[in-house]
Design goal:
Elements: E1 2-8, H1 14-26, E2 33-39, E3 45-47, H2 50-58, E4 74-76, E5 86-88, E6 91-93, E7 97-101, H3 111-119, H4 128-135, H5 137-146, E8 154-158, H6 165-179, E9 183-187, E10 197-199, H7 202-213, E11 218-223, E12 227-236, E13 251-260, H8 267-272, E14 277-280, H9 287-303, E15 308-317, E16 323-329, H10 339-346, H11 351-369
Parallel strand pairs: 1-2, 1-7
Antiparallel strand pairs: 2-3, 4-5, 5-6, 8-11, 9-10, 9-11, 12-13, 12-15, 13-14, 15-16
Length: 376
Amino acid sequence: MTVTVIYGGKSGEHEISLVSAAAVARNIDSKNKVLLIAITKQGRWFLQPQSEFERIKADSKASFQIIEDESQEVSVIPGGTSARTFRVAGKIIPTDVVFPVLHGPFGEDGTIQGLFEMADVPYVGCTTLGSAETMDKEKTKVVLKQAGIPVVPGFCVRRSDLAEASRYDEILKKAQEELGFPLFVKPCSAGSSDGASLAKDLQHLNGAIMEAFNWDDKILIEKAVNAREIECSVTGNPTIDDGSVSAEKLTAYGPGEIAPKHDFYDYDAKYNDPDGADLLIPARLPEERLEEVRSLAKKAFAALDLSGLSRVDFFIDKDTDELYLNEINTMPGFTQISMFPKMCQAFGLDFTSLTNLLIEEAIARFKKTRNLQTSR
C-alpha cells in the first residue's frame, strides 16, 4: 500500500506540522510505501525526494525540511480515482490513502478534506464537516450544549461588533459583569493557542481582543477557569460503525493531565519549552472521574460526527470541581512531547499500531461512503 503523507501548510502551525509529520512518517508500518508531499507557507505543493524520508527515518529527533524543486510541483486531479489524484510533470503518482498531518487553517478546518473528497481519495482524519465545525470553537460549543455536554461560560464577538463604539462598550461591560476577571480571549478558528491571551483587567482585555482579531474575524471571551487541564485521545467512527471493521469502534485512551508551568498551556509551553509542562498519564483522578472524562469525550466525538481521531480537552475547576469540555483538536500534535500518541501508547496502542488503525479506518470509511447513492 502507498501512503502519501502531506504536511507543512499555510497556517501558523506550519513548523509544528513538519515535526508531527516526521513522527507519523517514521512510524508508518514498513510494509507500506511512503510518499511525501510538502506544502509551503505560500501554498505550493512539492513532491519530496525519497532521501528526505530516509533522513528522518534515520534520526528520531529530525523534522522535515521542504525541498522546493520546480520540476516536482504537484497537481491535484479532482473527479478521478485515488490512483490518479496526484501528478508531477504530467506523470501520475499513485496513492492508496492520504495521511494529512496539517494543523490549523487550511489543514484542519475542512478545506483540504473537501479537496480530498472531490479528488476521490481516502484520507486519515475527520470529514469535511467534522473538521470544519470543530475548527470553529463557537459552533463546537453550540453542538456540545445541544448534546448536554458542559462547556466553559463565555460568548462570541464578531469583527462587525467593533464598528460601533457603543456596541464595543456593551461587550466590555458584559464580559466584566457576566464573567468577571480574569478572562481568556482566543480566536474562534486558530490552533496551538495562536492569538490567545489571559486578560487580568480591562486594559489587558482590550489588548487581548485586538490580538485575537489579528487571527480571526470571530473571537471568544470566556471565563478563565482556575483549571486542571485534562486531555483524552479518541479514535473510531461512531457514525458508520456496524461492527465489521474494528478500527471504527469508538475508543477513548487516557485521560492524561497537563500541568503547565506557564500562565496557561500556550504555544511556548506546548512546543518550545521542554520544561513548559508536566505530562501525567493517567491523570491524577479517581477511576470514576477518569471514566466520566472518557465517556464525555466519546459522547462529544459522536455528537459532532467525528471520525478517525481527535484529542478532546477538558478543564476541571480547582475551586468548584466542575468539569468542562474546552475544545477538540481533530489533528492533534504528534511531536515527541505530544499527549495524543503518548496517551494511546500508555493505554496499549503503540505508534505504529496507531497509524495502522487510522489508515484502516480511512479506507473503510472511503469504501462505505462510496457505496452511497449520489445521483438518480
